[in-house]
TrEMBL record:
SUPFAM superfamilies: Nucleotide-diphospho-sugar transferases. It is an enzyme of class 2 (transferase). This is Glycosyltransferase. It comes from Shiella aurantiaca. One of its GO terms (molecular function) is glycosyltransferase activity. The lineage of its organism: Bacteria, Pseudomonadati, Bacteroidota, Cytophagia, Cytophagales. It comes from the Bacteria. Keywords: Glycosyltransferase, Membrane, Transferase, Transmembrane, Transmembrane helix. Its EC number is 2.4.-.-. Residues 5-167 form the Glycosyltransferase 2-like domain.
Amino acid sequence: MVKYSVIIPVYNRPDEVDELLESLTHQTFTDFEVLIIEDGSSRPCEEIVKKYEKQLAVSYYFKPNSGQGFSRNFGFERAKGNYFIVFDSDCLIPPHYFQAVETALNKYGFDAYGGPDKAHESFTDLQKAISYSMTSFFTTGGIRGSKKAIGGFHPRSFNMGISRAVFEKTKGYIITRMGEDIEFSIRIQANGFTTGLIEEAYVYHKRRTSFSQFWKQLHFFGRARINISRFFPSELKPVHTLPAFFVLAEGCYLISPWIHLPTFYLGSAALGLFSSAIFIDSTRLNKSLKVGLLSVGASFVQLTAYGVGFWTELGKRIRGK
């Protein structure tokens, strides 16, 4: 029996799967299997998977489309390991990843864990900017949790692991979209399991490759936060409303020149300071003025799209839809 089973749901991403599997061939800790779950794709990756059969213990499964959550359950049910690890198909895994997980689990014994994401040096400038906006203190990146808040950390499904006992108790995902990973994490904790962040178990997460794709993704995330509150009302906390109020502030700023000019000047100064802080911080971290500039745009897209999605779904909920 292997120690870890890696579950990767895929939908029309053969090129990403190729890069992900290639990164897994460089692991320093190799006691793991890989299960590729093709979720009804029209561009299957079976031939890509076959390339790695001599380098990895990899299995390929094709199933009708049901969404990521239920596809992960499909993989859990067929996994041989004692611990299940979930990656999104658009991730690259650094060579030390499994060793970092092994070390942390031996030390802390987490029933479930999550890891952070970073930008790989091969990413485009826009991908690096989007990665910055998703991990920055100045955006919603600071909401996810931290090492200091181990008991309250909610793993996210682009990079997370659960013990076999967690799956057997919770039965995995019960919704497949609109915040399925948050709902699952909350239920894991509600069942008395321990969760934690393993900082060294990071992945390189490509996310989206254009601002329009990024907008759609974050708009969906904002809607998902309201959807989660249908199941767990107490999990809608004041911090989750910050992007929604950011959108309100943007709206007030846009109409302020016709209503109250001093407010417009004050808003301009605040937006300038906020943008400058993002630009300086991202430029420092990425050592690139271009990435720093793109990070300003990515951060505004992230906060605005999330906030608009939040208000959109909240309106539907109020109307009883």
